[in-house]
Amino acid sequence: MSVKNIWVINQFAGSPTSGWGERHYYFAEYWLQAGYRVNIISGSYNHMFSNNVNANGTYTIENINGRQFCWTNTPRYNAQSIKRFWSMMVFAWRMLRLPVKELGKPDYIVVSSMPIFPIITASMLKRKYSANKLVFEIRDLWPLTPIYLGGYSKNHPFILMLAWIEKFGYKKADRIVSLLPNADKYINNISGRPEKFAYIPNGLSEDILVNEQISEETRSKIPSGKFIVGYAGTLGLANALEYFVDAAALVPADANIHFVVIGDGYMKKELEERAKATNNITFIGKIPKNQVQDVLRFFDVCFVGRNDSPLFEHGVSANKYFDYMLAGKPILDSNKLIKDPVELSGCGIIVQPNSAQAIADGVMQFFNMSPAERQAMGCKGAEYVRRHHSIRFLANKYLEVFEGTNSN
Question: What is the pTM of this model?
Fold first, then answer.
């Protein structure tokens, strides 16, 4: 019996050494154990990576702990530049000439968005190699994301193109996997085939979690003897951090409360400028993922936020929830009631979005709790994430998608 071969086409897929995008790397641990071969086809450059690949030619093959990565040479770009779009187009085009001799013919092809452009070339690859199944994995809803967060008109040519590709992908895919718990109605309305849909969120694995200590330099930047309200993650528009930064100036000056923001992103300079007149907030650069659990030990409360946008009614899939919850930390959640992990587990306080005052009030509510009350909340989160977001459990759900009845 031949070994079945999984191709994951995800331009932003990474490994632990990349510093970002490890979802499919960790799933592959359990796919390999189940007897599958795994190829992860990614781009050579990603602005979110800590370490990018030195591509040798158009395709660079690298074996990383049993997973075969095919790094596709893509142009470098600035995150805010049109070159980022060009990089996505180059990646999609180069999927047509993948080195099949090295990768082996696929039995299952997974296209993980964003970007969504490779779903077109992947549908050609499925037909060319008679693959059993094409799976379209939706991490963010496009074109809704640029419409709601970027302010694009739904009649903009770029949006119309994305909408066409989205519809094409939902129609051509045998199964549609979403990381967003409430996305089924939106997706099913377009696909017309509710049976295609499967919800497989992000998760984590304690089995393969490496917990490194933070550097002394990082440790020295976190104030001692303070009540720390912290954020660790990407500094981008969707995280509504401007309200978090503004909230630092609204808590009582004598309350011994300090805000800490850990991470990088295109909004970092803007946020630092916004906080210039505030003396109870510290910005620390991005740290390796293996050090996140260690740094969370120094937080009393962790923050996660979203803008007040209809986009998030479909749910969210941020890994920071699970990092916070695994650490047993209570969470201040600036969000609408969207059935996110904080709401479902009861591990925090939910305050209205787009309001620095609501965040400050939530901070004070936590500050006035006893340590035992905060610990009880954090324990709820830790229990929930271990039960519902184990990588082993989620990877096995994916195998059911691969081996289940074909929906087309």
Answer: 0.79
pLDDT digits (tens, 9 = 90+) for 142-190: 888 878 777 889 889 988 998 999 999 999 999 999 998 888 988 999 9
Which tokens hold the place of 5?
A: 């071969």
